[in-house]
Design goal:
- The protein is α/β, with parallel strands linked by helices.
- About 40% of the residues lie in helices and about 15% in strands.
- It contains 13 helices and twelve strands.
- Helix 2 (about 75-95) runs parallel beside helix 12, helix 7 runs parallel beside helix 10 and helix 11 (about 275-280) packs across helix 12.
- It is globular.
- The chain starts with a helix and ends with a strand.
- Bound molecules: flavin mononucleotide.
- Flavin mononucleotide binds near residues 156, 158 and 292.
Amino acid sequence: MGKTQSRKAEHLKIAVEEDVQFREKRTGLERVAFKGVELEYKALPEMDKKEIKLETEFLGKNFKLPLMVEAITGGTEEAKKINKDIAKACQETGIGMGLGSQRAMIEDAGLKDTYFVRDVAPDIFLAGNIGVTELGKYSAKEIGKALDDVGADAVAVHINAAQAAMQPEGETDFKGRIEEIEKLAKTLKKPVYVKEVGHGIGLETAKALAKTGVKAIDVAGAGGTSWTALDSKRGSKEMGETFWDFGIGTAESIVQTRKGFKGKIIASGGIRTGLDCAKGIALGADLCGLALPVLKAQQSEGSQGVKKLIEKLAEELSIAMFLAGAKDLKGLKGKATVKS
Ligand SMILES: Cc1cc2nc3c(=O)[nH]c(=O)nc-3n(C[C@H](O)[C@H](O)[C@H](O)COP(=O)(O)O)c2cc1C
Protein backbone atom coordinates (compact mmCIF):
# COMPACT_ATOMS: atom_id res chain seq x y z
CA MET A 1 0.00 0.00 0.00
CA GLY A 2 1.36 3.45 -0.99
CA LYS A 3 1.76 6.38 1.43
CA THR A 4 -1.38 8.16 0.22
CA GLN A 5 -3.42 4.98 0.53
CA SER A 6 -2.20 4.10 4.02
CA ARG A 7 -2.94 7.64 5.23
CA LYS A 8 -6.44 7.31 3.79
CA ALA A 9 -6.95 3.96 5.49
CA GLU A 10 -5.84 5.46 8.82
CA HIS A 11 -8.26 8.37 8.35
CA LEU A 12 -11.17 5.99 7.82
CA LYS A 13 -10.33 3.91 10.88
CA ILE A 14 -9.88 6.91 13.18
CA ALA A 15 -13.01 8.67 11.86
CA VAL A 16 -15.18 5.64 12.56
CA GLU A 17 -13.64 4.48 15.85
CA GLU A 18 -12.68 7.67 17.67
CA ASP A 19 -14.26 10.95 18.66
CA VAL A 20 -13.18 13.41 15.98
CA GLN A 21 -15.94 15.97 16.04
CA PHE A 22 -15.59 19.52 17.36
CA ARG A 23 -16.03 19.61 21.15
CA GLU A 24 -16.63 23.22 22.23
CA LYS A 25 -17.45 24.85 18.93
CA ARG A 26 -20.85 24.18 17.36
CA THR A 27 -22.11 24.64 13.83
CA GLY A 28 -24.33 27.48 15.07
CA LEU A 29 -27.27 25.64 13.49
CA GLU A 30 -28.23 23.80 16.66
CA ARG A 31 -31.09 25.06 18.77
CA VAL A 32 -29.15 26.10 21.84
CA ALA A 33 -26.01 27.85 20.76
CA PHE A 34 -24.16 30.96 21.81
CA LYS A 35 -25.40 32.57 18.66
CA GLY A 36 -27.97 30.10 17.47
CA VAL A 37 -30.10 30.00 14.38
CA GLU A 38 -33.82 29.41 14.74
CA LEU A 39 -36.11 28.49 11.89
CA GLU A 40 -39.15 30.74 12.10
CA TYR A 41 -42.23 28.79 13.18
CA LYS A 42 -45.40 29.51 11.26
CA ALA A 43 -48.15 28.05 13.44
CA LEU A 44 -50.65 28.35 10.59
CA PRO A 45 -48.58 27.33 7.57
CA GLU A 46 -51.62 27.42 5.20
CA MET A 47 -50.33 24.52 3.14
CA ASP A 48 -50.49 20.73 2.93
CA LYS A 49 -47.22 19.08 4.01
CA LYS A 50 -47.69 16.49 1.27
CA GLU A 51 -47.27 19.16 -1.41
CA ILE A 52 -43.77 20.20 -0.36
CA LYS A 53 -41.25 20.11 -3.19
CA LEU A 54 -37.65 19.20 -2.36
CA GLU A 55 -36.28 18.95 -5.91
CA THR A 56 -33.44 21.16 -6.98
CA GLU A 57 -30.74 21.61 -9.61
CA PHE A 58 -27.01 21.86 -9.00
CA LEU A 59 -24.35 22.38 -11.67
CA GLY A 60 -26.63 21.08 -14.40
CA LYS A 61 -27.93 17.96 -12.62
CA ASN A 62 -31.33 17.35 -11.06
CA PHE A 63 -31.56 16.33 -7.40
CA LYS A 64 -34.67 14.83 -5.80
CA LEU A 65 -33.49 16.21 -2.45
CA PRO A 66 -31.11 19.11 -1.73
CA LEU A 67 -28.51 16.75 -0.32
CA MET A 68 -25.16 15.24 -1.18
CA VAL A 69 -22.79 12.84 0.48
CA GLU A 70 -19.49 14.67 0.80
CA ALA A 71 -16.09 13.36 -0.29
CA ILE A 72 -14.90 10.49 1.89
CA THR A 73 -12.69 7.95 0.21
CA GLY A 74 -11.06 6.07 -2.65
CA GLY A 75 -7.84 4.22 -3.31
CA THR A 76 -8.21 1.05 -1.23
CA GLU A 77 -10.29 -2.16 -1.44
CA GLU A 78 -12.24 -1.04 1.61
CA ALA A 79 -12.88 2.32 -0.08
CA LYS A 80 -14.28 0.55 -3.13
CA LYS A 81 -17.06 -1.06 -1.10
CA ILE A 82 -17.75 2.14 0.83
CA ASN A 83 -18.07 4.17 -2.39
CA LYS A 84 -20.35 1.60 -4.04
CA ASP A 85 -22.62 1.30 -0.99
CA ILE A 86 -22.94 5.08 -0.73
CA ALA A 87 -23.43 5.56 -4.48
CA LYS A 88 -26.20 2.96 -4.60
CA ALA A 89 -28.08 4.76 -1.82
CA CYS A 90 -27.57 8.11 -3.58
CA GLN A 91 -28.92 6.69 -6.85
CA GLU A 92 -31.99 5.28 -5.09
CA THR A 93 -32.75 8.53 -3.29
CA GLY A 94 -31.77 10.91 -6.11
CA ILE A 95 -29.02 12.86 -4.35
CA GLY A 96 -25.40 13.74 -5.21
CA MET A 97 -22.12 12.24 -4.10
CA GLY A 98 -18.51 13.30 -3.81
CA LEU A 99 -15.60 10.91 -4.26
CA GLY A 100 -12.55 11.09 -1.99
CA SER A 101 -9.34 12.73 -3.20
CA GLN A 102 -8.39 11.24 -6.57
CA ARG A 103 -4.70 11.83 -6.00
CA ALA A 104 -4.17 8.09 -5.37
CA MET A 105 -5.67 7.13 -8.75
CA ILE A 106 -3.72 9.82 -10.60
CA GLU A 107 -0.55 8.40 -9.04
CA ASP A 108 -1.59 4.79 -9.73
CA ALA A 109 -4.12 4.25 -12.54
CA GLY A 110 -4.71 0.71 -11.24
CA LEU A 111 -6.75 2.18 -8.39
CA LYS A 112 -9.41 3.65 -10.70
CA ASP A 113 -11.96 0.97 -9.86
CA THR A 114 -11.88 1.85 -6.14
CA TYR A 115 -13.55 5.15 -7.13
CA PHE A 116 -15.76 3.91 -9.96
CA VAL A 117 -19.47 3.94 -9.05
CA ARG A 118 -21.23 4.66 -12.34
CA ASP A 119 -22.23 0.98 -12.64
CA VAL A 120 -24.48 1.37 -9.57
CA ALA A 121 -25.18 5.10 -9.86
CA PRO A 122 -25.55 6.07 -13.51
CA ASP A 123 -27.65 9.19 -12.95
CA ILE A 124 -26.42 10.99 -9.84
CA PHE A 125 -24.40 14.18 -9.66
CA LEU A 126 -20.91 12.87 -9.02
CA ALA A 127 -18.05 15.13 -7.95
CA GLY A 128 -14.42 14.20 -8.37
CA ASN A 129 -11.94 15.55 -5.81
CA ILE A 130 -8.43 16.93 -5.70
CA GLY A 131 -6.45 18.86 -3.10
CA VAL A 132 -5.54 22.48 -3.85
CA THR A 133 -1.89 21.70 -3.14
CA GLU A 134 -1.95 19.11 -5.94
CA LEU A 135 -2.92 21.69 -8.56
CA GLY A 136 0.65 22.66 -9.24
CA LYS A 137 1.63 19.01 -9.72
CA TYR A 138 -1.07 17.84 -12.13
CA SER A 139 -2.19 19.54 -15.34
CA ALA A 140 -5.82 20.32 -16.10
CA LYS A 141 -5.58 17.54 -18.69
CA GLU A 142 -4.55 14.96 -16.06
CA ILE A 143 -7.29 16.10 -13.70
CA GLY A 144 -9.80 16.05 -16.57
CA LYS A 145 -8.80 12.47 -17.37
CA ALA A 146 -9.25 11.40 -13.74
CA LEU A 147 -12.76 12.88 -13.87
CA ASP A 148 -13.58 11.21 -17.19
CA ASP A 149 -12.26 7.85 -15.92
CA VAL A 150 -14.90 7.78 -13.19
CA GLY A 151 -17.63 9.67 -15.07
CA ALA A 152 -17.59 12.65 -12.69
CA ASP A 153 -19.70 15.71 -13.52
CA ALA A 154 -17.51 18.27 -11.76
CA VAL A 155 -14.44 18.52 -9.56
CA ALA A 156 -14.29 19.68 -5.96
CA VAL A 157 -10.95 21.24 -5.12
CA HIS A 158 -10.46 20.78 -1.39
CA ILE A 159 -8.71 23.46 0.62
CA ASN A 160 -7.29 22.20 3.89
CA ALA A 161 -4.76 24.58 5.42
CA ALA A 162 -5.84 23.74 8.99
CA GLN A 163 -5.60 20.01 8.34
CA ALA A 164 -2.26 20.25 6.54
CA ALA A 165 -0.79 22.25 9.41
CA MET A 166 -1.53 19.30 11.74
CA GLN A 167 -0.06 16.62 9.50
CA PRO A 168 3.59 15.79 10.04
CA GLU A 169 3.90 15.38 6.25
CA GLY A 170 1.35 18.11 5.39
CA GLU A 171 1.86 20.46 2.43
CA THR A 172 1.70 23.95 3.92
CA ASP A 173 2.82 26.04 0.95
CA PHE A 174 -0.41 27.85 0.10
CA LYS A 175 1.19 30.63 -1.97
CA GLY A 176 -0.40 31.20 -5.38
CA ARG A 177 -3.21 28.71 -4.84
CA ILE A 178 -6.00 31.15 -5.74
CA GLU A 179 -4.34 31.69 -9.11
CA GLU A 180 -4.08 27.93 -9.62
CA ILE A 181 -7.77 27.50 -8.84
CA GLU A 182 -8.59 30.22 -11.37
CA LYS A 183 -6.42 28.57 -14.00
CA LEU A 184 -8.12 25.22 -13.50
CA ALA A 185 -11.61 26.79 -13.53
CA LYS A 186 -10.77 28.48 -16.85
CA THR A 187 -9.16 25.45 -18.50
CA LEU A 188 -11.15 22.44 -17.36
CA LYS A 189 -14.17 21.52 -19.44
CA LYS A 190 -16.17 20.49 -16.36
CA PRO A 191 -17.34 22.80 -13.55
CA VAL A 192 -14.90 23.42 -10.72
CA TYR A 193 -16.00 24.10 -7.17
CA VAL A 194 -14.09 24.59 -3.95
CA LYS A 195 -14.67 22.92 -0.61
CA GLU A 196 -13.12 23.15 2.82
CA VAL A 197 -12.84 19.91 4.76
CA GLY A 198 -14.37 21.00 8.09
CA HIS A 199 -12.95 24.33 9.26
CA GLY A 200 -15.05 26.73 7.23
CA ILE A 201 -14.76 29.49 4.63
CA GLY A 202 -14.94 33.17 5.57
CA LEU A 203 -15.86 36.35 3.72
CA GLU A 204 -12.38 37.19 2.41
CA THR A 205 -11.81 33.71 0.99
CA ALA A 206 -15.31 33.69 -0.54
CA LYS A 207 -14.63 37.03 -2.23
CA ALA A 208 -11.30 35.80 -3.59
CA LEU A 209 -12.94 32.62 -4.91
CA ALA A 210 -15.73 34.66 -6.53
CA LYS A 211 -13.12 36.10 -8.91
CA THR A 212 -11.73 32.72 -9.96
CA GLY A 213 -14.73 31.48 -11.93
CA VAL A 214 -15.54 28.55 -9.62
CA LYS A 215 -19.19 27.60 -9.85
CA ALA A 216 -19.85 26.75 -6.21
CA ILE A 217 -18.42 26.83 -2.72
CA ASP A 218 -18.92 24.08 -0.17
CA VAL A 219 -18.30 25.75 3.16
CA ALA A 220 -17.56 22.59 5.22
CA GLY A 221 -17.66 24.68 8.36
CA ALA A 222 -16.67 23.94 11.93
CA GLY A 223 -19.00 21.91 14.13
CA GLY A 224 -18.84 18.45 12.53
CA THR A 225 -15.75 16.42 11.69
CA SER A 226 -12.65 18.23 12.91
CA TRP A 227 -9.61 17.53 10.76
CA THR A 228 -7.28 19.14 13.22
CA ALA A 229 -8.60 16.52 15.66
CA LEU A 230 -8.50 13.65 13.19
CA ASP A 231 -5.03 14.30 11.91
CA SER A 232 -3.68 15.06 15.36
CA LYS A 233 -4.65 11.52 16.31
CA ARG A 234 -2.15 10.32 13.74
CA GLY A 235 0.58 12.81 14.53
CA SER A 236 1.16 15.67 16.93
CA LYS A 237 -1.38 15.15 19.69
CA GLU A 238 -0.52 18.29 21.63
CA MET A 239 -1.05 20.66 18.72
CA GLY A 240 -4.27 18.88 17.81
CA GLU A 241 -5.61 19.72 21.28
CA THR A 242 -4.80 23.41 20.76
CA PHE A 243 -6.52 23.61 17.37
CA TRP A 244 -9.25 20.97 17.95
CA ASP A 245 -12.03 23.57 17.78
CA PHE A 246 -10.39 25.95 15.31
CA GLY A 247 -12.38 27.34 12.40
CA ILE A 248 -15.52 29.18 11.32
CA GLY A 249 -18.79 27.62 12.47
CA THR A 250 -20.99 26.36 9.65
CA ALA A 251 -23.83 28.87 10.14
CA GLU A 252 -21.41 31.81 10.23
CA SER A 253 -19.55 30.40 7.25
CA ILE A 254 -22.73 30.16 5.14
CA VAL A 255 -23.66 33.75 5.97
CA GLN A 256 -20.16 35.08 5.19
CA THR A 257 -19.83 33.06 1.99
CA ARG A 258 -23.24 34.24 0.79
CA LYS A 259 -22.08 37.83 1.30
CA GLY A 260 -19.03 37.41 -0.88
CA PHE A 261 -20.11 34.84 -3.51
CA LYS A 262 -23.06 34.77 -5.92
CA GLY A 263 -22.75 31.14 -7.11
CA LYS A 264 -24.15 28.00 -5.52
CA ILE A 265 -23.34 27.22 -1.90
CA ILE A 266 -23.26 23.88 -0.16
CA ALA A 267 -23.91 23.92 3.59
CA SER A 268 -21.80 21.28 5.26
CA GLY A 269 -19.75 20.54 8.34
CA GLY A 270 -21.86 19.08 11.14
CA ILE A 271 -25.14 18.82 9.22
CA ARG A 272 -26.78 16.04 11.22
CA THR A 273 -30.52 16.51 10.75
CA GLY A 274 -32.96 17.72 8.13
CA LEU A 275 -33.59 20.69 10.43
CA ASP A 276 -29.88 21.64 10.24
CA CYS A 277 -30.21 21.44 6.48
CA ALA A 278 -33.35 23.62 6.44
CA LYS A 279 -31.51 26.25 8.50
CA GLY A 280 -28.52 26.11 6.15
CA ILE A 281 -30.77 26.73 3.15
CA ALA A 282 -32.68 29.46 4.98
CA LEU A 283 -29.34 31.19 5.60
CA GLY A 284 -28.46 31.17 1.90
CA ALA A 285 -27.17 27.71 0.90
CA ASP A 286 -28.57 25.76 -2.06
CA LEU A 287 -27.65 22.24 -1.02
CA CYS A 288 -26.51 20.44 2.13
CA GLY A 289 -23.74 17.89 2.46
CA LEU A 290 -22.59 15.47 5.10
CA ALA A 291 -19.84 12.89 5.46
CA LEU A 292 -19.15 11.30 8.85
CA PRO A 293 -22.72 10.16 9.68
CA VAL A 294 -22.91 8.56 6.22
CA LEU A 295 -19.64 6.71 6.74
CA LYS A 296 -20.85 5.45 10.11
CA ALA A 297 -24.21 4.35 8.65
CA GLN A 298 -22.38 2.51 5.85
CA GLN A 299 -20.07 0.80 8.31
CA SER A 300 -22.92 -0.47 10.44
CA GLU A 301 -25.63 -1.29 7.89
CA GLY A 302 -24.11 -0.93 4.40
CA SER A 303 -26.02 0.73 1.57
CA GLN A 304 -29.35 0.17 3.33
CA GLY A 305 -28.09 2.09 6.36
CA VAL A 306 -27.09 5.03 4.18
CA LYS A 307 -30.47 5.01 2.45
CA LYS A 308 -32.27 5.00 5.80
CA LEU A 309 -30.23 7.99 6.96
CA ILE A 310 -30.97 9.95 3.76
CA GLU A 311 -34.69 9.18 4.05
CA LYS A 312 -34.71 10.36 7.66
CA LEU A 313 -32.99 13.62 6.68
CA ALA A 314 -35.51 14.13 3.86
CA GLU A 315 -38.46 13.66 6.18
CA GLU A 316 -36.98 16.00 8.78
CA LEU A 317 -36.35 18.62 6.11
CA SER A 318 -39.91 18.26 4.90
CA ILE A 319 -41.27 18.73 8.43
CA ALA A 320 -39.03 21.77 8.98
CA MET A 321 -40.30 23.32 5.74
CA PHE A 322 -43.90 22.62 6.70
CA LEU A 323 -43.41 24.29 10.07
CA ALA A 324 -41.77 27.30 8.44
CA GLY A 325 -44.53 27.53 5.85
CA ALA A 326 -42.17 26.94 2.91
CA LYS A 327 -43.63 25.01 -0.05
CA ASP A 328 -40.28 24.69 -1.80
CA LEU A 329 -36.61 25.43 -1.22
CA LYS A 330 -36.92 28.97 -2.54
CA GLY A 331 -39.62 29.60 0.02
CA LEU A 332 -37.20 28.68 2.80
CA LYS A 333 -34.78 31.50 2.03
CA GLY A 334 -34.61 34.12 4.72
CA LYS A 335 -36.74 32.12 7.17
CA ALA A 336 -33.96 31.83 9.73
CA THR A 337 -33.37 34.15 12.61
CA VAL A 338 -29.88 34.47 14.00
CA LYS A 339 -30.07 34.87 17.78
CA SER A 340 -27.27 36.61 19.57
C1 LIG B 1 -13.05 9.74 6.69
C2 LIG B 1 -13.21 11.02 5.96
C3 LIG B 1 -12.45 11.24 4.80
C4 LIG B 1 -12.55 12.45 4.08
N1 LIG B 1 -11.83 12.63 2.92
C5 LIG B 1 -12.00 13.77 2.19
C6 LIG B 1 -11.35 13.93 0.93
O1 LIG B 1 -10.63 13.06 0.44
N2 LIG B 1 -11.55 15.09 0.25
C7 LIG B 1 -12.36 16.10 0.74
O2 LIG B 1 -12.53 17.12 0.07
N3 LIG B 1 -12.95 15.98 1.94
C8 LIG B 1 -12.81 14.84 2.67
N4 LIG B 1 -13.47 14.71 3.86
C9 LIG B 1 -14.24 15.87 4.41
C10 LIG B 1 -15.74 15.74 4.12
O3 LIG B 1 -15.97 15.73 2.73
C11 LIG B 1 -16.57 16.88 4.81
O4 LIG B 1 -16.34 18.10 4.15
C12 LIG B 1 -16.28 17.04 6.29
O5 LIG B 1 -16.09 15.77 6.89
C13 LIG B 1 -17.38 17.78 7.05
O6 LIG B 1 -18.59 17.09 7.04
P1 LIG B 1 -19.15 16.20 8.28
O7 LIG B 1 -19.08 17.04 9.52
O8 LIG B 1 -20.56 15.85 7.88
O9 LIG B 1 -18.27 14.98 8.38
C14 LIG B 1 -13.42 13.49 4.57
C15 LIG B 1 -14.20 13.25 5.73
C16 LIG B 1 -14.11 12.05 6.42
C17 LIG B 1 -14.94 11.86 7.66
